[in-house]
């Protein structure tokens, strides 16, 4: 009986120890938040400089700074208690974000902010700082590289009299047909093509053709017209 009671006491003591909170010093807390803020601002700067999407959103960029700080707060909180950390994992697993992410690079920045916040909250400052520098320099280097040719969309509105000449010139440009809309007296043709060194003189050539009403050339990244 004594052995059974002793065993129960051990179990109770273990559970109580698991539920005990450990204090986070003011120095560690301030340092973690400072590192999280600094890394978050670095992410903010890289996103603003290297953004290549359609419409830049300042508010969306600010969320990366806040996400880094909040993640560090969560990690510092759950590190004080094992039971609390398990409960926090269960609570966060039911959270669903409904905001549509249009640019895949935005997901990269989200994971970057969360990872940096985890490292800062766990007091692994070298990982947060050095890792963020490597990621930031990689993004900057990749976005600054210029391709030999850039994709564009060429949109033509022309009458039937210009049909043959337009087709002949399109074939010479190795363009890819995207859409063609035929109305009673007017045809709308949209093709994708690549241009080297921003040579857009052919737009004037198309516009000078008899029967061509208007010519539009827009930058194209495969998904959005810019």
Number of domains: 2
Overall mean pLDDT stands at 79
Radius of gyration: 29 Å
Strand order of the largest sheet: 2-3-1-4
Q: SSE order, as H and E?
A: HHHHHHEHEEHE
Q: Give the termini distance in whole angstroms.
A: 79 Å
Can you tell me the overall shape? elongated
Largest sheet: 4 strands, antiparallel
Q: Helical percent range? A: 55-70%
Structural class, by secondary structure, is alpha+beta
Total count of helical runs of at least 4 residues:
8
- Low-confidence runs of at least 5 consecutive residues: none
- Measured by DSSP, the beta-strand proportion falls in 15-25%
The total of beta strands comes to 4
Keywords: Membrane, Transmembrane, Transmembrane helix
Pfam families: DUF4956 (PF16316)
Transmembrane segments: 26-47, 59-89, 109-142
Protein name: DUF4956 domain-containing protein
